Amino acid sequence: MREHILKTAFSALLVLFPLLFTSVSAEAAPPEDEPIKGTIPAASCVLEKAYFGDKNEYESVPVEAETLFVGLSYDRSAVDEAWFVNAEGLGFRLGSFNENRVFQSSFETEASELIIRNERSWYLLIDEVFASREEAVSFAERYAGRVVSMEGDYRVLIGPFQNMEEVDYTIRWYALSGKPWHESCIVVYDGSGNCLTMVTDADQIAFEALSNGKARTNYQGEQYYGAFLLRRWEGDRLTVINAVGLEDYVKGVIPYEMSSSWPVEALKAQAVCARSYAAYHLGEYEEDFGFDLTDDTESQVYRGIYGADAVTDAAVDATAGQFVRYRGALCEVYYFASDGGMTEDGAYIFGSEQPYLAGKTDPFEQAVDFAVMRWERWRSGEEIAWRLQQKGYEIGSVTKIEPEYSELGNVIGMRYYDAAGICLDLKTRDSYSPLYLDSACFTVRPEDDGFRFVGIGWGHNCGLSQWGANAMASVYGMTADEIIGFYFTGAYIG
Length: 494
Known about the structure:
The structure is a single chain. The protein is of the alpha+beta class. It folds into two domains: 1-63 and 323-461 and 489-494, no CATH class; 79-236, no CATH class. Helix content is 20%, strand content 31%. It has helices at 10-16, 133-142, 164-174, 246-251, 254-257, 264-280, 286-289, 310-318, 346-349, 381-390, 466-474, 480-487; strands at residues 67-73, 81-86, 92-97, 103-109, 113-126, 145-150, 153-161, 178-190, 195-199, 204-209, 216-219, 222-225, 227-232, 238-245, 293-294, 324-326, 329-330, 335-336, 375-380, 398-405, 411-418, 423-427, 442-447, 450-455, 464-465, 492-493. It has a seven-stranded mixed sheet with strand order 4-3-10-13-14-1-15. A hairpin with a 2-residue loop joins strand 23 and strand 24. Helix 6 (264-280) packs across helix 8 and helix 6 (264-280) packs across helix 12.
């Protein structure tokens, strides 16, 4: 949700910005009466009563989002091997999550490190079904075997072997009752490489760290609260998921979306937005990957607890259980770094026609050195065509572009033409997002077999401006309620 924040000189903006809106054609020109960005005195802005919803008038709809599944390594970032360390040096409980997202332990290990892989090898599967895990372990230790669960039963696998012939030889040599077994399975090792367990009849395994207080687990240079769930992905790779409580999740988002040096009221507004976004988008990636949210800007930046401090945690605690609501219902909220003077209707950005996602003049950002005051990008006609083709569109090297502007001056559509006369007419953010531009507020002009895009702001321009929230709190002393009420018309914290 938040892109990297840059700063440039604000005085240069006032000189240069009126020159940005040089149209490609008369049809593509922005409205003549478009307000000049950043020229409305914030001191003259009165937060109209119409902005705010009455939280006492509506009954709040319950929000069910106690445990979130957050994808840390998935799709292209799925791993061949995952290494976890208990931050307290204690052991782990291994088990699974039930349909209600409740962790159910199968057994514990004193190992403070876990290495988990998805493997496929030849094994000897012993015919005997053991009455308990302890009996299975006792038998397995005699043959350097491994205890596994198959359809709820405790079984023993001996191996691995290079091929089926080695399995047959072992059966004859030890006079064992069993058969060759060759399937993909998730294998859990301790830090010394000793096998702790194998999962053969499920596509996932879960675990949580043992702790004297609140469990913390290290993974890929970060530290996380909660438990972990690993699922098989394509080939022998694994998807790694952090199963974390909603409030702990928000504590892992705030320091990566807004600096702890910012005003506490801005941080509180950010915390409410992050919590609302997570709850609203619960299950968004379930069908494709088996989790709710990603840990990057596709959802919200989430990096666990290393970046958190007392200030950001306090902002989360002060708003615990609070969401952005409209007439009692949970809101579909969005936020971004800076808008440069105008936000935009949700219908024109995400195709979301929510009344509280109404674009408006934003006079607050100019009171601080917001990000980004001016940006430029150049794209060749061939590159633009290639980027559009990656999204499934059919078009040749682009020779002409006609942007479509909203009444607020943001781009809400793009028409692309190639030499063969093909016209690709796209709407909302999808019309320009393939080009990786910095905001929705920009102009286009042809230049050197390509096009130069010149704009202002950083982000999609829908919902809450983080730099605007900063200014509202630091310069004008406004509260989190006022920040939310301004950026989400008719909504409130409740």
